[in-house]
Amino acid sequence: MSAKHAMHLDGVAALAERYDVFLLDQFGVLHDGQQPYPGAVEALSALKRAGKTVALISNSGKRTEPNERRLLKLGFEAGSWDHFVSSGEVAWRIFTDMVREGTLRSGTRCLLISRDGDRSAIEGLPLVLTEGVDDAELVLIAASEGDRYGLDHYRGLLGPAAARQVPCFCTNPDRIMLTGVGQRFGAGEIADLYEQLGGSVTRIGKPYPAIYEAALVLAGNPDRGDVVCVGDSVEHDIAGGQAAGVATALVLSGILAHSGDLAGLFDRLDAHPDYTLDAFLWR
Questions:
Q1: Which of 160, 145, 95, 100 is nearest to 125 (CA)?
Q2: What is the residue-wise DSSP string for 80-143?
Q3: What is the pLDDT of residue 272?
Q4: Does pTM top 0.85 for this prediction?
Q5: Is 163 helix (H, G, I), strand (E, B) or coil?
Q6: How many CB atoms lie within 10 A of CB 45?
Q7: 160 preceded by cis ω (within 30°)?
Q8: How many angstroms separate the CA atoms of 38 and 177, rounded?
Q9: Mean pLDDT, to the nearest integer, of 142-159?
Q10: Looking at CB atoms within 10 Å, which of 5, 31, 121, 160 has the fewest?
Q11: How many other CB atoms sit within 10 Å of the CB of residue 124?
């Protein structure tokens, strides 16, 4: 469906009439990181009451458990989603498999880029955290502190590792993040910087296939025609859902709030949503 034919819907109830399985983004759709959007808590609970399968699918470098804990703390109702798939969880499972297969050595020294000292991305993995860029054997970019630091901070931190071609994984490909002080650069932007500095990056999360495959397996491998992916990023949610072969709905409450030329953005990214919603409201 082309951009000019994206159908505008009043609320999530209209989507629930059409689809049985919902792959929902969290940041920019359900909440802004500080508080839920008006009506989002009720809309999520209403989806479950309508008998829908709800999988939250997030470019969060944190694992499932801390993400779910935050949703409950923000006021979302326990049981209002069936599954939570974060890029951090998918990455953790990939690393676990790599250790078991012997492609990731136990004791590998890892430079972890995260927020607020969060280490959930590597807890339980046989990696050794290092602060030193000169002895790092693996770089893991799980989050950005772009609300505290500029890109120059990360340039200085990562330059030596990139120059040595240390392998890097980015478990949050979002280039923009919502913070208490407005939009700032996300972990995806730091990954881009690592490549500019001469390193190579493996990205895990939306719009890349592994996170959708994990979510659809948990949802019971439904017919793709029964599934809709709802998010606020054309680059991640719409492009990713489109590539996964499911319908897509763009919510205009997050990073695209107050944006102008949406049709131009759709064309530039070659990602065209089937539906648009002003906000994640039931109605």
A1: 95
A2: S-SEEEEHHHHHHHHHHHHHHHTSS-TTEEEEEE-STT--TTTTTSSEEE---TTT-SEEEE--
A3: 95
A4: yes
A5: helix
A6: 17
A7: no
A8: 20
A9: 95
A10: 5
A11: 10
- Tell me: pLDDT of 89 over 80: yes
Percentages (nearest 5) of helix, strand, coil residues in the chain: 35, 20, 45
Nearest Cα residue to 138 out of 201, 90, 216: 201
pLDDT at residue 211 in the model: 95
Mean pLDDT across 102-121: 92
Q: What six digits make up the tokens of 94?
A: 């990939």
Which residue do the tokens 């409950």 mark? 72
Yes or no: say if 103 and 181 are a contact pair by the CB < 8 Å rule: no
Residues sharing a CB contact under 8 Å with residue 238, sequence separation 6 or more, in sequence order: 229, 231, 248, 250, 266, 269, 271, 272, 273
Please, which residues have CB within 8 angstroms of residue 246's CB and are 6 or more apart in sequence?
23, 212, 224, 227, 228, 229
Pairing mode of beta strands 182-185, 176-179 = antiparallel
Q: 2: Cβ–Cβ under 8 A, 6 or more apart, which residues?
A: 272
CA atoms within 13 A of residue 127's CA, in its CB half-sphere: 26
Identify which of 44, 51, 28, 109 has the alpha carbon closest to the alpha carbon of residue 81.
44
pLDDT per residue as tens digits for the range 165-214:
999 999 999 898 877 778 899 999 999 999 999 999 999 999 999 999 99
The amino acid sitting at 116 is D
Reported confidence tier of residue 97, pLDDT bands at 50, 70, 90? very high
